[in-house]
Design brief:
seven-stranded mixed β-sheet; 9 strands
């Protein structure tokens, strides 16, 4: 079966039908060959409506979740974007294909190396990948968009402080089966204001602290 046709069907049936309507986002998903970012043993199911397993217990985002994240932050050409959790590099490639200046952090060196190779093969090697812990890394300058591809058991203000005024940040916050996908926006007065988008689940960001629990 033709791979381009399969990807087109994936976008039509999984993404468009689930409230992702921004044509810029749809075009980015069409430009990036998803199969190039899927581990070789899983390429027969590259267009499946499910997260696909990577090394270290990580997962490649489902097509729908990738589309919803992109539509939430709406990255524009020339904006500085920080991605925390490169994974296979698929979302990194989608962000770069929208013209953003992408900086992506991956804590695992082998995943970072594979993502670089994937981006190179897809012709999107301009994204800057760094092997670093997102919970310890210090931003050299503020970002217009930030995307966390792993969840935060509790909100971490350090990420909001990395946003430029008017910046947008996507994060999944919570524990348990259903977590809250949120869009945070930094106001001109410096406040970082959250808005709930939908419910989903992502594995927790490594080294992100768990929320405090009450003891009796």
């Amino acid at each position: 079966m033709n791979q381009a046709w399969q990807q087109s069907q994936m976008i039509s049936q999984q993404v468009r039908t689930n409230a992702v309507h921004d044509e810029r986002i749809i075009a980015a998903l069409e430009r990036v060959p998803r199969i190039a970012f899927v581990p070789p043993g899983l390429r027969a199911v590259d267009c499946a409506d499910a997260p696909l397993p990577l090394a270290h217990g990580k997962h490649m985002l489902s097509p729908l979740l990738a589309g919803r994240i992109l539509q939430a932050v709406v990255p524009r050409a020339g904006e500085r974007v920080l991605e925390v959790g490169t994974g296979s590099g698929y979302l990194t490639a989608c962000l770069a294909s929208l013209g953003a200046e992408v900086h992506s952090l991956e804590i695992h060196a082998d995943l970072a190396a594979q993502a670089r190779a994937n981006l190179q093969a897809a012709g999107l090697a301009a994204a800057q990948l760094l092997c670093a812990d997102g919970m310890a890394w210090e931003a050299p300058a503020p970002f217009d968009c930030i995307v966390l591809t792993a969840s935060l058991p509790a909100w971490q203000p350090r990420f909001g402080q990395m946003l430029a005024p008017g910046g947008r940040l996507f994060a999944v916050v919570g524990t348990g089966v259903l977590m809250s996908a949120r869009l945070y926006a930094r106001a001109a007065d410096g406040r970082v204001l959250p808005r709930n988008l939908f419910e989903t689940w992502l594995e927790p960001l490594e080294n992100a602290p768990a929320p405090e629990t009450c003891r009796f």
